[in-house]
Hints:
By secondary structure, the chain is an all-alpha fold. The protein has helices at residues 14-65, 67-70, 74-79, 81-104, 109-120, 123-128, 130-133, 139-148. The longest helix has 52 residues, at 14-65. The N and C termini lie far apart (75 Å).
Amino acid sequence: MICFSNDIGYYLTFDFWNKRADIIVAVVAVIALLFTVIQIKINKMEARRATALTAYNEYLKLSFDFPEYSYGYEQYITNNCSAFDKYPWFVSKMLFCFEQILSVEKNNKEWKIALESQLSKHSWFLKKSKSVRRKEWSNDLQEIINKVI
Length: 149
């Protein structure tokens, strides 16, 4: 049985710490385990964030390369044969990027607002899109598309 003495010098002895070593090691191990779990969760969140940002950056690059499509001007696109042929592929690439974002950030309202804003520019085309009618996109993306159209 461990008996506590009032002498402070006793707490500095090897015997005192030796009797409590198992408890101290267990406490340190639990603290290390908690730190590891927290670190893993943080790393997972950062990886998801990086994936979403990379996908959105890909969409922004596409928009920069093809600004005539990124605005979704219906009159320009329907009156220009070359644009009309390429625009569906632009929209497909855009939807694919958005689907990637939602696959990792499905509960993030800010992403949903940003994606909805971009999709609203292309609502006229999404209403006619066969892939949208066939519901080929993820449920999360389809939900935003339905809201926009």
